[in-house]
Design a protein that fits this description.
With about 600 residues, the chain is an alpha/beta fold. The chain has 25 helices and 16 strands. The longest helix has 21 residues. The relative contact order is 0.11.
């Protein structure tokens, strides 16, 4: 292992200053994040920022939060009204203003404007009001934002790498002002949530995900880079839209696409080193699986749609066992949807079964059934199946639809990852309820409009017996005098803490056991009080504590597997994770 790391160090030495990857991340040159809130920091840009420039710099701007001394020292007199307002009062005012908007997209735009105006206040707002603002900066509102991104586009956030930049991707990466990047979230916009091909307008996803990396996982904003790869779009309405901001051509495919992505992956490693995490987001199924398989052995890569979704769903299932009883191997799983999410979740469930029972994973897969657009996946269809569906083709007579599959298989767990709304019909859910005392029903498709069923439908059609969770949030439901609080199987539980664990350990590769470790850590955070309400996920109010525990578990697994390069290993990984987290409280300036 040491020789491997030595080789990696030598390979990266010509590109990166070794200091830039110390501690599994970026050296905090100016002490901004090591400093306590009482210590002073210097607002560096290329020189010391002052006056009008300081007010236009989102990293250091505090608005009316500048003190009298700071206003004198940094030439701010006259550029601000005389009042001095604390960060807490600024936060209170902004939340009041946000609540006046009736349209969620208006709240999204207000939050994005705040992010490019006052970074610390944006993250303070998001951390302190996470349950209220998560649906604004992330699903479901981010879906509508992507659809209308051309109309609402104001400030470029992140890098846009289009086919025009072919052969020059490394130069484009060097245009980004930050040199020390820990996490990149990248999309090509072909399969945005359940909304399809949104081309260049998919940038809302990387921007939103990285906002959560900082707010929920504590990574520094300056270490995060959102990227959209624009290879065209097959969405005719966008190609005809005057306000579309991307390339006006059909999508590049085949070798042209593969070569372009390869240039991108090579340039990222060359520019940022071995330990930068590249998170793939919302690629089409065929590309998503191929990219993960191709680069999983050479880069630190993670696909949130395949692996993140799988990890968060497995955590919910492990927690749900405490409500329904039995072990994973005693349950039968039926999926609607056999794409990235469905097969990713299925494989991780099979791996966890295998790990717990020491049974070959091939045997464990036989407890898991998948339904796609052509019906139940069975062995007689094997020749015509895509490669990622073949492991799930079991012996059974053909079944044409979901209802028939539920009647034939009699699953205890029904999971929707189809991206098609209203597919868990009343008859399907009632059949689940007739087979099970406490049916587990997970409607995971996003946004809310694409959810397989609503929380109210699940509870009503099962007479309040369902254990329900969804991908997008639903309000609590009252049925027969009892309040049911639906859980949200939101990837935001997993990926921020997972990424933090990779960064603090200096991991060089992602291993499936790390995903299992993340799931186990999340499931362990569900308290008896949560179970009493029927919840299989903990509340988001504790998300930074949850992320620190997930990060510690993932880092521990990286050390155990010999994939961590941050040595020596910290004694208490939870405390170390917490100490590495960015806090958005205003700093005092010299």
């Amino acid at each position: 292992m040491e020789s491997t790391l030595k080789g990696i160090r030598e390979e990266g030495a010509s590109v990166l200053d070794p200091k830039s990857t110390v501690g599994g991340g970026v050296e905090d040159v100016y002490g901004e994040d090591r400093a306590t809130e009482e210590q002073f920091v210097t607002p560096w840009t290329l020189s010391v920022a002052s006056g009008y420039t300081l007010l236009r710099n989102p990293v250091y701007n505090k608005g009316l939060g500048f003190t009298e001394k700071e206003r004198d020292a940094h030439y701010l007199r006259g550029l601000l009204p005389p009042a001095i307002v604390s960060q807490e009062l600024q936060e209170k005012k902004l939340m009041h203003n946000l609540r006046q908007y009736e349209v969620p997209l208006q709240r999204y735009m207000a939050m994005m404007d705040l992010q490019v105006r006052n970074e610390r206040l944006f993250y303070k707002l998001l951390i302190d009001n996470v349950e209220e603002l998560l649906p604004v900066v992330y699903t479901p509102t981010v879906g509508e934002a992507c659809q209308k991104y051309g109309c609402i586009f104001r400030h470029p956030q992140g890098l846009y790498i289009s086919l025009k930049e072919k052969g020059k991707i490394l130069e484009v990466l060097k245009n980004w002002p930050q040199r020390t990047i820990q996490v990149i979230v990248v999309t090509d916009g072909e399969r945005i949530l359940g909304l399809g091909d949104l081309g260049c307008q998919g940038m809302g996803i990387p921007v939103g995900k990285l906002a959560l990396y900082t707010a929920l996982g504590g990574l520094r904003p300056s270490a995060c880079l959102p990227i959209t790869i624009d290879v065209g779009t097959n969405n005719e309405s966008l190609l005809k839209d005057d306000f579309y901001i991307g390339l006006r051509q059909k999508r590049a495919t085949g070798q042209e696409y593969a070569d372009f992505l390869h240039e991108f992956m090579t340039a990222v490693k060359q520019n940022y080193g071995e330990k930068v995490l590249i998170q793939f987001e919302d690629f089409a199924n065929h590309n998503a699986f191929e990219l993960l398989a191709k680069y999983g052995t050479t880069h630190l890569v993670f696909n949130d749609d395949i692996q993140g979704t799988a990890s968060v769903v497995l955590a919910g299932l492990v927690a749900a066992l405490k409500l329904v009883g039995g072990s994973l191997t005693e349950h039968t799983f039926l999926f609607l949807g056999a794409g990235e999410a469905g097969t990713g979740i299925a494989e991780l469930i099979a791996l966890e079964m295998s790990k717990r029972t020491k049974t070959p994973v091939e045997e464990c897969r036989k407890r898991i059934w998948l339904v796609d657009s052509k019906g139940l996946i069975v062995s007689s269809r094997k020749e015509s199946l895509q490669h990622f569906k073949k492991p799930w083709a079991h012996e059974h007579e053909p079944v044409k639809d979901l209802l028939g599959a539920v009647k034939a298989i009699k699953p205890t767990v029904l999971i929707g990852s189809s991206g098609v709304g209203k597919t868990f019909t009343k008859e399907v859910v009632e059949t689940m309820a007739s087979c099970n005392e406490k049916p587990i029903i997970l409607a995971l498709s996003n946004p809310t409009s694409q959810s397989e069923c609503t929380a109210e439908e699940a509870y009503t059609w099962t007479q309040g017996r369902a254990i329900f969770a969804s991908g997008s949030p639903f309000d609590p439901v009252e049925f027969n005098g009892k309040i049911f609080v639906p859980g949200q199987a939101n990837n935001a539980y997993i990926f921020p803490g997972f990424g933090l664990g990779l960064v603090i350990s200096g991991a060089i590769r992602v291993h499936d056991d790390m995903l299992l470790a993340a799931s186990e850590a999340l499931a362990a955070q569900v308290t008896p009080e949560n179970f009493e309400k029927g919840l299989i996920y903990p509340p988001f109010t504790n998300i930074r504590k949850i992320s620190a525990n997930i990060a510690a578990n993932v880092a521990a697994k990286a050390y155990e597997l010999g994939l961590a390069s941050k040595l020596p290993r910290p004694e208490n990984l939870v405390k170390y994770a917490e100490s590495c987290m960015y806090t958005p409280v205003y700093r005092s300036y010299r």
